[in-house]
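Morning. Coffee machine broken again, so started the prediction first thing and wrote up yesterday's gels while waiting. Chain of 127 residues, entered below exactly as on the submission form.
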Amino acid sequence: MTQKILIVDDEPNILILMEQALEYLEDEYNVELLTTNNGESALKIIKEKKPNLIFLDVMIPKMSGLEVCNTVKNIYKMTDVYVILLTARGQEFDKQSGIAMGADLYLTKPFRPREVLEKSKEILGLE
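Came back before lunch.
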């Protein structure tokens, strides 16, 4: 079964950077990369495609990343989906909010593309 990664960010440069960081997984492991730029379409994709891993920006239009995370983890009960929140806000309070909503990990921008790739491989068991 093909593993899927969903990248949700309203900043086009971040989407491109994330895709570039993860295209190795597409080529080497046949991982499917999905992208969107708002919370509503993210939820639709999550319900339809059931990604294994989601990189979720906190500050996105139509529905915040925190709301999306809460919906996925606590309403849909999709506990097998690994959610990594991405945010420019690195205060402890923000991290606690993310973890409270069910996020598995919290990455602060700017992040290192190599870190994103290594973490993705680890989560998807592609070592």
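The chain has five helices and five strands. Going to sketch it on the whiteboard this afternoon.
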